[in-house]
Amino acid sequence: MSNNRGGSREGSGRKLKYNEPTKTVRVPVSKIIEIKNYLNEAEKQSFNDVASITLVDPTTLMHIPLASEKVAAGFPSPAQDYVDKTLDMNEHLIKNEAATFVVKVASLSMRDAGIEIDDELIVDRSIEAKHEDIVIALIDDEFTVKRLMIEGDHNHWLKAENPEYSDIHLKDGQEMVIWGVVTFVIKPFRKR
Predict the structure, then answer these.
(1) Cα 20 to the chain's mean position, in Å?
(2) Hey, CA dihedral for 41, 48, 53, 64, is it positive or negative?
(3) HSE on the CB side for 113, CA within 13 Å?
């Protein structure tokens, strides 16, 4: 007799309630109400997806060799050893030095857009945000990293790129300030 109940299904399972993994622990009965009250406060919506914000100081100049031909994902051509010019990473990543910041990410709310915890984002505050840009927004004095969705003249909301996180639709009295537009994600492919 076969059992058709097993296996995982997309979207099933417990959802992250506190934006981090949880663990089962034993607590004294006399502390249950106190702990539940604490957890209810922690459960209130928090937007702070940003660990740090640092102003860019492009004082160093480093020229990196730039191959003159594009590289395919297959086997490289032996002729591609020729380096035509060099690239300064400051010129490549920073368009407006005075308005550019590096933001370190503190949540997985944008995981499916390739942004993970401890990734560094290059953020330009001088760019006007457009529909579907990834932005740093300020809501209730907390920063969040989300995709800006614009529907009509007055309906703006923020989309999470991870089904375990909620989209952000402003409630009455809430104000959203688009602090900057994410232009690049800096992340290592090789862990040290």
Answers:
(1) 15
(2) positive
(3) 24
Task: Give phi and psi for 124, each to the nearest 5.
Answer: -110, 120
Nearest to 108 by CA among 144, 79, 74: 144
- Going along the chain from its start, the domains and CATH numbers come out as 50-61+96-186 (2.10.109.10)
* Alpha carbon distances (Å) from 140 to 29, 47, 79, 171: 35, 8, 56, 11
Q: What is the pTM of this model?
A: 0.64
Distances 9 to 12, 130, 171 between C-alpha atoms, Å: 5, 35, 32
Q: Please, are residues 94 and 122 in contact by the beta-carbon 8 Å criterion?
A: yes
Structure tokens, 46? 């928090």
Mind listing the pLDDT tens digit for each residue in 98-155? 888 899 999 999 999 999 998 999 999 999 999 999 999 998 888 999 999 999 877 8
C-alpha 170/C-alpha 172 separation (Å) is: 7
Catalytic residues: 109, 146
Structure tokens at 182: 């994410």
